[in-house]
UniProtKB/TrEMBL annotation:
Species of the source: Chinchilla lanigera (Long-tailed chinchilla)
InterPro entries with a match to the protein in the record: AKR (IPR020471), AKR1D1 (IPR044483), Aldo/ket_reductase_CS (IPR018170), NAD(P)_OxRdtase_dom_sf (IPR036812), NADP_OxRdtase_dom (IPR023210)
Any one GO MF annotation of this record: Delta4-3-oxosteroid 5beta-reductase activity
Keywords carried by this UniProt record: NADP, Oxidoreductase
Record-given protein name: Aldo-keto reductase family 1 member D1
Family: Belongs to the aldo/keto reductase family.
Active-site feature positions: Y58 (proton donor)
UniProt cross-references to SUPFAM superfamilies, sorted A to Z: NAD(P)-linked oxidoreductase (SSF51430)
Gene assigned in the entry: AKR1D1
GO CC aspect terms: cytosol
Gene Ontology BP terms: androgen metabolic process; bile acid biosynthetic process; C21-steroid hormone metabolic process; cholesterol catabolic process; digestion
Domain NADP-dependent oxidoreductase: 21-303
Source superkingdom: Eukaryota
NADP in keyword set: yes
Length: 326
């Protein structure tokens, strides 16, 4: 794989392709101003990013879309250069909700289509305006959805031209297989977006996905923002890792750049989030060096098999994905 060109794209199983690095746009906490999001996406486009990972849930799709449209209007990029990934949230998994939910995202973005639309988590919640619904006793209001029926509704959105490619997120092997083995499957998932970085390298899921021509998109590739409200901070800070820093020193790079390079060099797409212009640039400077086989093996060996993003608050959901080995 030639990873010297910053514009590098990886082919998807449906004939489309995905840029190997994208900008994550989940800002935690939401206190970062929406103007910062707008400015960050514009900076990223100037730097060379063409892939943006967003979601209705992130409450900034409007700004992400505005930044993209402004850069198109400036003549800096064309719509077809940009790759936007949106996400179908857990309250919207019933088939009749899928198309209106995607259309709401398109209205926020003010774009005609998204490049990739993914089921954000395999667990259903009660439909409604509340994105994290609870019942009258304060317990999570779960609602089991037939994900194969959700998938068929997504396939119809692709046929209608609202989305180019379809994927999933946080799916384990069994959940992927239930889609892959669905009778009458029209489009395979092109990707599975999951946590993936040197402390959680996903060797088995990666192998399974490669066998099925499904790309792994690595979320939290730098080890998250470490907000203890939702991050398992018992796993140490990734970017302080001694080995990653020693490799970084050798190449005059940073631990963040080494962590990102590790994933793209093994065919995993990365979507680091930064709303800081220096770090946005830094995270994109990963095409002018490569790791040796020995370094790749050593970084793989850093795997602790512990997630930063465990979603343990939903562990009693019948479709909680992380009890399976992978
Ligand atoms: N599908 C899912 O369930 C799911 C779950 C989590 C995340 N995601 C997606 O994946 C994206 C990335 O994951 P993430 O946001 O959890 O974590 P991440 O990208 O691993 O890390 C983001 C944190 O690292 C900081 N950072 C960025 N570049 C840095 C650098 N070069 N050196 C030091 N610190 C740096 C950022 O702060 P600054 O902004 O201040 O630079 C931010 O606090 C999200 O934004 C979202 O789009 C998806």
């Amino acid at each position: 794989m030639n990873l010297t060109a910053a514009s590098h794209r990886i082919p998807l199983n449906d004939g489309n392709s995905i840029p190997v690095i994208g900008l994550g746009t989940y800002s935690d906490p939401y206190t970062k101003s929406l103007e910062t999001c707008l400015a960050s996406v514009k900076t990223a486009i100037d730097v060379g990013y063409r892939h943006f990972d967003g979601a209705y849930l992130y409450r900034n799709e409007h700004e992400v879309g505005q930044a993209i449209r402004e850069k198109i209007a400036e003549g800096k990029v064309k719509r077809e250069d940009i790759f936007y990934c949106g996400k179908l949230w857990a309250t919207d998994l019933f088939p009749e909700l899928v198309r209106p939910t995607l259309e709401r995202t398109l209205q926020q973005l003010k774009l005609d289509y998204v490049d990739l639309y993914i089921i954000e988590i395999p667990m259903g919640f009660k439909p409604g305006n509340e994105v994290y619904p609870r019942d009258k006793n304060g317990k999570w209001a779960y609602c089991r959805a037939d994900l194969c029926a959700t998938w068929e509704a997504l396939e119809a959105c692709k046929d209608a031209g609202l989305v180019k490619s379809l994927g999933v997120s946080n799916f384990n092997r069994r959940q992927l297989e239930s889609i892959l083995n669905k009778p009458g499957l029209k489009y395979k998932p092109v990707s599975n977006q999951v946590e993936c970085h040197p402390y959680f390298t996903q060797p088995k899921l990666l192998k399974f996905c490669q066998q099925h021509d499904i790309i792994i998109v690595a979320f939290s590739p730098l080890g998250t923002c470490r907000n203890p409200r939702w991050v398992n901070v018992s796993s140490p800070p990734l970017l302080e890792d001694t080995y990653l820093n020693s490799v970084a020193k050798k190449y005059s790079k940073t631990a963040a750049q080494v962590a990102l390079r590790f994933n793209i060099q093994r065919g995993v797409v990365v979507i680091p989030k930064s709303f800081n212009s220096e770090r946005i640039k830094e995270n994109f400077q990963i095409f002018d060096f490569s790791l040796t086989e020995e370094e790749m093996t050593n970084i793989e060996a850093l795997n602790k098999n512990i997630r930063f993003v465990e979603l343990l608050m939903w562990r009693d959901h019948p479709d909680y994905p992380f009890f399976d080995e992978y």
